[in-house]
Amino acid sequence: MNLSDSQTAGSVPRRISAMEAVLGHLRGAIERGEYAVGDKLPSEAELCRRLEVSRPVLREALRALQTMGLTVSRTGKGTFVLSNGPVEDPTFGDYAASDLLEVRRHVEIPVAGYAAARRTPEDLDHLAHLLERMEGETDTTAWVAMDTLFHLAVAQAAQNPVFRRVIEEIRDALARQSAFLNELGGRREQSNREHRAIVEALIDGSAHDATEAMAHHLDRVETTLTAIVRSEHTDGADTPTEGGPEA
């Protein structure tokens, strides 16, 4: 089975990442009961052979399945089906998505306001440089790394070390969530636009606009995450490409 031969049902094919296609195939098989709860998935080598994808692509898809609560990985034993439907509240690293978002709303929204009032020219230069690099970046891993740096830089601009410490604490979870949303939700370009609105508000020194821009950004994060978790699977519905999603 070559997933790269899949087509969108209907009018115009939509190119998606190979990882998304693999995830969709495996998720559909689990939800249809082809792999029952408690079953062990085929080995990575076997799945790569069947689906004709590289091992890094497969491993990203397996990590996404685990994030969604569908599977569990047991060291030295393999990957086992944990549930036939995704959990409503996936986990990113040590934190549930709902807990992560709740904290981000209570911290990052007011932080953006403080940053607008307290940012230095150096802070603005750093954020503008990061944003420029992110807008030109096509590699998901590199973009995700800069995404976490962006949120750290906003916290730094608030001139309160406690804020930066809080973002540092959840940095790994933020990176995992960011990668998940970008691979499955095509969020990169939209997120770049949201980041630009935040930076423009900071440049203008408008606490109101900065908090509004950050709140909008977090709203979109929540909306995309909910859509991914609740989406109904259509097996073989899209055309993947290992180059990544098109936003």
Structure description:
The chain is elongated. Helix 4 crosses helix 6 (140-157), helix 5 (121-136) packs antiparallel against helix 9 and helix 6 crosses helix 8 (171-185). Helix content is 63%, strand content 7%. It has helices at 18-31, 44-51, 55-67, 97-118, 121-136, 140-157, 161-169, 171-185, 188-204, 207-230, and strands at 15-17, 71-74, 78-81, 91-92, 95-96, 239-241. The two termini are 26 Å apart. The strands form three sheets. The protein has a two-stranded parallel sheet. It contains ten helices and six strands. A hairpin with a 2-residue loop joins strand 4 (91-92) and strand 5. The protein is mainly alpha-helical and 247 residues long.
Please provide a brief summary of the model.
With about 250 residues, the protein is mainly alpha-helical.
Describe how the helices and strands are arranged.
Blueprint: E1 15-17, H1 18-31, H2 44-51, H3 55-67, E2 71-74, E3 78-81, E4 91-92, E5 95-96, H4 97-118, H5 121-136, H6 140-157, H7 161-169, H8 171-185, H9 188-204, H10 207-230, E6 239-241
Parallel strand pairs: 1-6
Antiparallel strand pairs: 2-3, 4-5
Helix pairs in contact: 1-3, 4-6, 4-9, 4-10, 5-6, 5-9, 6-7, 6-8, 9-10
